[in-house]
Design brief:
The chain is α+β, with helices and mostly antiparallel strands. Helices cover 39% and strands 21% of the residues. It has one helix at residues 10-61; strands at residues 84-89, 96-100, 106-114, 118-125. This is Type IV pilus assembly protein PilA.
Length: 135
């Protein structure tokens, strides 16, 4: 007589559950890192708006704004999103600083004006999720 197949054995089911558990243990932390990097990317793009305002001011006036200049004096208002708490700059030197709500990460963009070549920017960040150009 032929014996009909009855289904999966307990060992086969346990192996499948173990494989799914291993894949989930690897995938979930990678996904979380990926989303934090994407959120940090939003922080950089929001800071780029302030960068653009400084670049436009530099083209129009022939130099970077004075260190005590307010952001609104050069035509910039700080946008806020669900991830970015504030964008502003230091009063002792012109440094654009953006602060994120994700763990208090900050990005500092420091301009250097060179006559003839314009503004070059140096980026510094306080997060392990920052892109390599900002570390």
């Amino acid at each position: 007589m032929k014996k009909m197949q009855q289904g999966f054995t307990l060992i086969e089911l346990m192996i499948v559950v173990a494989i799914i558990g291993i894949l989930a243990a690897i995938a979930i932390p990678s996904y979380q890192d990926y989303t934090r990097k994407a959120q940090f990317s939003e922080l950089l793009s929001m800071a780029s708006a302030a960068k653009l305002a400084v670049n436009e001011y530099t083209i129009a006036k022939g130099g970077v704004p004075a260190s005590g200049s307010s952001p609104t004096a050069i035509g910039f208002s700080s946008p806020a999103t669900s991830l970015v708490s504030s964008i502003g700059w230091s009063t002792n030197r012109l440094v654009i600083t953006a602060t994120a709500k994700l763990g208090g990460a900050t990005v500092s963009l420091t301009p250097t004006y060179t006559s003839g070549t314009g503004v070059t920017w140096k980026c510094a960040a306080t997060s392990k999720y920052a892109p390599s150009s900002c570390k």
